[in-house]
């Protein structure tokens, strides 16, 4: 009875809280919703000496190249040289600054923050199980595939079209996302849409919800799903959060 009551209290606190602040949980990033172009970067500079060095070098590059394709290329490759060290699924931006780990969400978030700071026009593209960036520069589109440190700067027209076609019609389900496949079943959506920076931060929390569910910690997974919903009320995040809540309430009633 005591266990069930405690669990219900935790669920209530998670669902009615206006926001789940990063400082209240060791796993949560300290990134806040950007309110001005440089707010993310100010936070990251405080967190990481390597990022500060990267940012200062890019400022020097910008004074030479301005808003050109060369500058976008420098943002991509200098970031890989300085802060993106090893791909690790379910990494958050804070992990990048502490260990160099990154994935498509955290890596794209950092690149997007830099692109925004330097005034580039870009889209954050969410697909069914992936995220990438599309930058418009000199009347051309450049794809930034952060998980490919060697050839992820895609400016060649045939290569760009091939890349976009790969994600326009959905992707195969990889094992860490199996829980979504079991929930969504045959109705798994073929997602291909533009999102903003706040939604991308929400996807970081959603990834953590998936990660902790896979580790059999449903309560922490639910808390992350609530955090994700504060930033991005996507259908699948709502569905997964409700699934976790149902499981926790069922467990508490036993």
From TrEMBL:
Signal sequence bounds: 1-22
Superkingdom of the organism of origin: Bacteria
Record keywords: Signal
Protein name as it appears in the record: Transglutaminase-like domain-containing protein
Annotated source species: Cyclobacterium qasimii
